[in-house]
Amino acid sequence: MKKWLWIFWVLITLSVTGFYGYKMTLDEDKSELLIGDATHGHFQIELACESCHTEPFGGQEVIQTACTNCHQQELKDAHDSHPKKKFTDPRNADLLQVIDARYCVSCHTEHQEEQTQDMGLTLPTDYCFHCHQSVGEERPSHKDLPFDSCASSGCHNYHDNKALYESFLVANSGGEWIKHLDEINANRPAPNAAASIAPELIAPELIASKFIASKLIASESAVTEKASSAINALFAEKMAEHPDINNHWQASAHEQAGMSCGGCHLTGASTNEQTSLAAAWIEKPGVEQCQSCHQKEAKGFLEGKHGMKLAQGYIAKISEMSSEHSGLSFSELVQDNQHGCNSCHGAHSFDTKYAATEACLSCHTDEHSQNFNTSPHALLKDNVLEGSLAAASQVTCATCHLPRVKEKQAGTEVVRVEHNQNLNLRPNEKMIRSVCMDCHNLEFSIDALADETLIQSNFNGKPGKHIESIDWALKRDQKKAKKE
Amino acid sequence: MMKKLMKGKAIKFALTASVAAAALSITGCGETEASKGIEPKLYTDSLFAVMKADRTNYTKYIIKRLGPNGVGAIKPDEHWQDIENGALLPAQMFRAGAEAVAEMTDKFTYSLQSNWPINSQNAPKTAVEKEGLDFIAANPGENFYGEETLGDTTYFTAVYPDVAVSEACTSCHNKHKDSPKTDFKIGEVMGGVVIRVPL
Question: From the CB of residue A478, how many other CB atoms can be counted at a distance below 10 Å?
């Protein structure tokens, strides 16, 4: 080969190696290294390579650890029907040759856009066949069912079968499609029935450092009298500058809880020094300030699709959420807005009624969202706002997608809003127990969530589909009873 | 040249021997037998003894005392996670133990299987499992031991009889709508505990 060809080859090799080496190690923009678009679940963080590829070398186990770091608790809560530990027994060695179910990526391979289906699945949808081919012999009702129909809505789910297992179907069969209002009101956590953070749950040092105002600051607060008067003077000045903001704040839950300006706008550091107050002032508080009190809400937000980009350190704009890969559509009017707690809650007013519906509809323009205002659920919300229905009867976007959950914190039962909407969304059967059955019976809930047309109309009508799972479960139950 | 090589080999042998001797003396026994490790049969027999004892004690001291036939403080149920005060059935407790062990070590695995399983996934699959379960059913009081290769690993596989010790075992299996056998009697072999050790 001629000498110049060798030189040309070496130069090309060095250039390519240098370019990708720079991209891999020094450049913040890793887009050139992307081997394919990520799924709808991960596209927001597809350029935060290290969120999944936590180590440059290490293979499948490293990726698996990254998966479980984010999804382990969710799977545990769902009583995962197919956890890794079920497949490590050597008796399943032959099955693992077909699908290595010990690893998430065996079914959910990332960056494979062409073969990715719902739920980020990258396997042919008849995957159940490999282990359950004898089901037709055991269950006459299943005899001629195709294997790609097992995981259709209302029948089975690979991970979360909490609302679909046979005994649950039998135990919850029957009843009217909609429950009596008294029962609904008794079942559901009343909106604002309890604060998600009880004052006694906040650590005293946090109260002092956050300048939560006089109602909560104990006399033994670390704030000196001198600093306190300087802070009050600063607040008075800010309030005078922004009378509208002051009005919003005075009507807010923050004011009622004794949370004044400094709770969000002042860092805890160096606040005893009058001269450094201006430096400690945060003009636009972000999630970090909110989460110092609302820890669980912020955690859910950062784990869900609204906040997952922020969790990786990106300042996210709505336009970055509205990639074609999200499968959703968003209003162009808000494309440049940054996404954070205030996107839905608004600064200073923190109106939860606005956050529960109008905030959602200001961004989400897909068919299901846009049909909300003419849906039966919206009518309930309007009746509550007019005062003709009890508050617990209302249904907003948040009722289903960011539901209120009762839980014990430090021995006290509190109602909090789960801000990770994914926990309750995909697959949609997750909503059956946590939301739908508060008001509807199981049969209606299963049928409604299996009817895509009904979902798009925002449940304006009755289900056009019927899933036979409850019928089959009851039939088997009756057959068994007859034998006895 | 040859001499030099032999001398080198002799030094290597001496070093190896002294390291081996040192290793044995560190272990404090110095017996050749000790370096072989425990026999697979003794190992699986011991594991089974612990499993059986724990399971019996769970049934006797937890389920019987605190369950519906005792003070009624807990509700043993197949879907225990969905029930307030729900508790695992003894067989589920056993499986939960096997799964927890699988998360901790791959030095051995165990499972509960039957020729008449409520969940068909718990029927014997491998030739040794099938032979073992048939053997313990036909030979009450005896265990079965064998070897098998699964994937690219050879295992010592032991199968121990799982006997119906109380009315709760038989009635639950006889009544369950997924049970292929409905006439189990106390004292009968209902299935087997399969323990595997990679060789």
Answer: 11
